[in-house]
């Protein structure tokens, strides 16, 4: 919270803080990453803010919805992760950042906790992850939300949402 109020003053030391965040021997590297990420967020350098948030460990908590910083960083993470997944589907040599996968798994858990199954399904479909499509369906049904099946089927009916016919057929098979 202090960084949000005094980020301009903290930015004077940003190069030093960023250096500390990258030093594996510094015991508070996660905290330095979190502070630097918030500063970059306020400077509207969102790629750097995400890069450092991914290194912030427990200091980047996505469970709190409504925080503008968390929501913006999550949005950028989802966009970049989706892009990486799509490129990986075309070229298996493209690697998906494991730190982003951790955040995405936390995002799915948050969606389940908040019963935002449509959002979770949208992310699963956008990223082309059939195992997540199945997980979202199972979790929603276990939590007494069978509407997810109809919602997913409607999304698959148009090529606008699920462009790949092969993936669309996998999704429909999973729904059955």
Q: Can you characterise this structure?
A:
The protein has 176 residues and is mainly alpha-helical. 70% of the residues lie in helices and 0% in strands. It has helices at 2-10, 14-21, 29-42, 46-53, 68-90, 98-113, 117-127, 130-142, 147-157, 165-175. Helix 7 runs antiparallel to helix 8. It is elongated, with a radius of gyration of 19 Å. The model has no long low-confidence stretch (mean pLDDT 91).
Compact summary:
The chain is an all-alpha fold. Helix content is 70%, strand content 0%. The protein has helices at residues 2-10, 14-21, 29-42, 46-53, 68-90, 98-113, 117-127, 130-142, 147-157, 165-175.
Keywords:
single chain, 176 residues, mainly alpha, 0% strand
Major sheet attributes: none
Could you list the spans in which at least 5 consecutive residues all have pLDDT below 50? Answer: none
* Count of individual beta strands: 0
Strand content: under 5%
> SSE order in H/E notation?
HHHHHHHHHH
The termini sit apart by 48 Å
- Helix-strand makeup class: mainly alpha
Helix content: over 70%
What's the overall average pLDDT, rounded? 91
Described by the principal axes of the CA atoms, the overall outline is elongated
Please count the helical segments: 10
Described by its quaternary structure, the protein is single chain
Rounded to an integer, what's the Rg over CA atoms? 19 Å
């Amino acid at each position: 919270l202090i960084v949000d109020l005094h980020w301009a003053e903290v930015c004077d030391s940003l190069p030093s803080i960023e250096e500390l965040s990258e030093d594996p021997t510094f015991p508070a590297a996660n905290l330095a990453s979190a502070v630097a990420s918030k500063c970059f967020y306020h400077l509207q350098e969102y790629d750097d803010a995400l890069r450092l948030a991914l290194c912030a460990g427990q200091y980047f908590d996505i469970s709190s919805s409504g925080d503008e910083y968390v929501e913006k960083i999550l949005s950028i993470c989802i966009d970049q992760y989706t892009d990486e997944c799509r490129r990986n589907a075309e070229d298996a040599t493209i690697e998906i950042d494991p730190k982003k996968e951790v955040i995405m798994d936390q995002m799915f858990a948050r969606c389940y906790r908040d019963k935002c199954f449509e959002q979770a399904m949208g992310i699963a479909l956008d990223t082309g992850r059939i195992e997540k499509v199945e997980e979202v369906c199972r979790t929603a049904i276990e939590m007494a939300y069978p509407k997810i099946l109809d919602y997913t089927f409607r999304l698959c009916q148009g090529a606008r949402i699920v462009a790949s016919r092969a993936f669309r057929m996998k999704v429909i098979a999973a729904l059955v």
